[in-house]
Structure formats: C-alpha cells, structure tokens
Amino acid sequence: MPQLSGEYAPSTSDWVREQVETYERTGGREGGTLRDTGIPVVIVSMRGAKSGSVRKIALMRVEHGGAYALVASKGGAPDNPGWYHNLVANPREVTVQDGPEPFLATVRLVEGDVYDEWWSRAVAVFPPYADYRARTARRIPIFVASPAG
Fold first, then answer.
1. Dihedral of the alpha carbons of 101, 21, 11, 41, in degrees to the nearest 10
2. Which of 88, 135, 144 is nearest to 116 (CA)?
3. How far is residue 18's CA from residue 35's CA, in Å, rounded to a whole number?
4. Domains in the chain, ordered, with CATH?
5. Whole-number Å distance between alpha carbons of 124 and 60
6. What pLDDT digit, counting tens, does each position of 61-86 carry?
7. Closest CA to 103 of 72, 49, 52, 63
8. Terminus of the chain with fewer CB atoms < 10 Å: N or C?
9. CB atoms inside a 10 Å sphere around CB 42
10. Which among 73, 104, 108, 103 is positioned nearest to 91, based on CA atoms?
C-alpha cells in the first residue's frame, strides 16, 4: 500500500483528524462521507510545504475517469486553504484513498475549459461549492489528482 514516508502531523481540526483516522482504520467502510451529509469523501495525503511532514485531509469525492478534483474552496474564505500550498510545493508527493487502498498521485492545477468541466462536476457532487464561489473574490483553485506513473 503506497504511503508517504516521514512524520505524520495530524490535523489540528478534531473532526478532520477523527475522520481521517476512522476512514483509514476501516478502509473507507466508515468515515467515508462528509459528517452526516451522505456525500462521499476521499482521503488525500501530501507533504507539508514548510514542515515536510505528512498531512492528511478529507475532501469531497469528485471523480471522473480515474482522476479526482481537489477543490481548494475553504468554504468561500478569501484565502486558499493551507493544504493548497502543500500541493503547489509537492505535486508528486500525494496519495488519494478512495476505498481500502490509497494510490500514488500527481496533481496539477487546471485552468480554462478543463477547469470549467471539473467545476461543473464538483458542484454536481457538492452544490454548496456554488455558494462558496459567490462568497469570495478569488477563483477557487482546482487540482486534478491522477494516478502516478
């Protein structure tokens, strides 16, 4: 099972830390939805841009053709989430777990028509993304994570 090497630094957010731990412990049989919404999530592991530690988050499961959108919405906040910087700094040190086994992934920021396609897919899975976009002046970044290799 692919894992990122190094020290794991759990999230300071209780619900994120607990969801990641539950998902990983059960191979996605538990903790696989965003709280009580029923909307599926994936676990994304990455290398911290500053610390070099392994960081893990749960993100909405927006999958198409074996690739996954990682939407840096931060609920429509004016700035990008901290994990955005991790993926920019270390786009090849990423795993995505959608079920029992994670896979190594490479991420890239998307723009133009590709961005629009992934944005539509993301809003179809999680309609609040549209509200988040209306709430912020920034363009919400989308990374696409594809299996490495």
1. 60
2. 144
3. 11
4. 14-147 (2.30.110.10)
5. 11
6. 999 999 999 999 999 999 999 999 99
7. 63
8. C
9. 23
10. 108
